Amino acid sequence: MSRAEIITINLGDGFDLNSGGTTNWTTERDATTADTLVNRSPSVGNDFIEMGVSFDTSRGNAWNVKRMWLGFDTSGITIPPEKAEISLMVANKTGIGSNPVNLATDHKFTLVGIKGHKLRQRDVGSTTSPIRKGAAIAFSSGAGDVNFFGESGIAGWSSGASWASSYVPYSDLKNVSLFSASTTEDIVTFTLNRQARLDIATCDHFYFCVIDYTYDLLNVDPSTGSPSAGAASSYEIAIPNATFSDRGVNNVIPKLSLTVGARKEQTPTKKRIDDKFTINAFDDVTDQRKVFTRNGATTDQVPFQLATKGPLSLRGRELAEDGGWEGSADPPVIKKN
Questions:
Q1: In this structure, are strands 62-73 and 13-20 parallel, antiparallel, or unpaired?
Q2: Which of 132, 149, 196, 209 is the right S-S partner for 170, CB 3.0 to 4.6 Å?
Q3: What SS3 state is found at 332?
Q4: Cα separation of 229 and 215, whole Å?
Q5: DSSP β-bridge partners for residue 319
Q6: Looking at the DSSP assignment, which residues form a beta bridge with residue 186?
């Protein structure tokens, strides 16, 4: 058996969107169009991609909501990896990001899926998955757009409510308090879940949104939900989009690390229909039946299960890309004797 392979993909595109300036939390948080777009694609230049939430009492109780999107070229990945991780260098200091103000120690942010995250590439369109459609046209120069701030850019987005039951999580939650308020930067690693790994194999360009969880995603007004209600509450996280040292430190570009299985997809050794017009409906898959691995599990290539009592009903059942049952429904059952 060959050894597992680790593939590292550097950030290919990034942008941040900001909605802010008014004295109404709902206006900024539920906006479908951002006030500003900053293209942070590495091809444009070295800079920092930012996200966070701010309630500023010194500016007449003004709110600002900033979200970040990162994109990676995964066109060469067609089988879900056994493991996937995102490594980000997070800066949280004066000059790069704002130190936390009136923030709970367990205040969290996370990675979430975009609209159309699991569509097959041929089904991607300007309405079904605007970010992926834009990336197909202009990935190297930046696919960001102010219209991606709401429903067009985030799966499960809705106005005026928490997205806790509708958003697509890609990772665990991270505490903002993990990051130093000093002059050092921290490498933060997110382990991506099964849905993210499936999407990596489906997408030519894999994007996700880095978003505040405690205030933004859960729809909690900072002016009332902060530890000291009514007082200013804010933080901003900045992530370098390239490796450079013009801020006095050697920065690390965001990376997507994939661990692919030790056994890869193989071609059957027999033709489905041979030269004598014999149909090899079973023989052409037997050679790879026990060596075809997806997502760390051996996928049975025989189109039916053996040694069962009576026929199986396959109606309405589909397999996911990693060989598991699609959806939450139980596998088909067999007939009793």
A1: antiparallel
A2: 196
A3: coil
A4: 13
A5: 325
A6: 90
Tokens of 94: 């004066």
What's the CA gap between 221 and 212, in Å, rounded? 12
What's at 289, amino acid-wise? R
Q: Report the run of H or E that residue 130 belongs to, with start and end.
A: helix 130-138
Nearest residue to 155 (alpha-carbon basis) of 105, 115, 97, 215: 115
Nearest to 67, CA basis, from 131, 7, 119, 6: 131
pTM as predicted: 0.79
| Strands in 94-147 per DSSP E | 108-112
pLDDT at 277 over 60: yes
Render pLDDT for 82-123 as a digit per residue (tens, 0 to 9). Answer: 999 999 887 755 555 557 899 998 999 999 999 999 999 999
Written as one string, the DSSP assignment of 22-59 is SS-HHHHHT-SS-SEEEE--TTT-S-EEEEEEEEEGGG
User: Which two three-digit tokens encode residue 27?
Assistant: 């206006």
Three-state helix/strand/coil letters over 201-218: HHCCEEEEEEEEHHHHHC
Q: Which residues contact 315 (CB under 8 A, 6 or more apart)?
A: 332
Dihedral sign from CA coordinates of 9, 10, 13, 16: positive
| Phi, psi of 119, deg, nearest 5 | -70, 145
Report the DSSP pairing between strands 186-191 and 13-20.
unpaired
Kindly tell me the burial class for residue 275, based on how many C-beta atoms sit within 10 Å of its own C-beta (0-12, 13-18, 19 or more): exposed
Least confident of 84-88, 107-111, 257-261, 283-287: 283-287
* Residue from 231, 201, 170 nearest 294 by CA: 201
The DSSP H or E segment spanning 195 is: helix 194-202
3-class DSSP assignment, residue 6: strand
In contact, 176 and 140? CB cutoff 8 Å: no
Task: Taking the CA atoms of 268, 274, 277 and 280 in sequence, report the sign of the dihedral they define.
Answer: negative
| Backbone torsions φ then ψ of 239, nearest 5 degrees | -125, 125
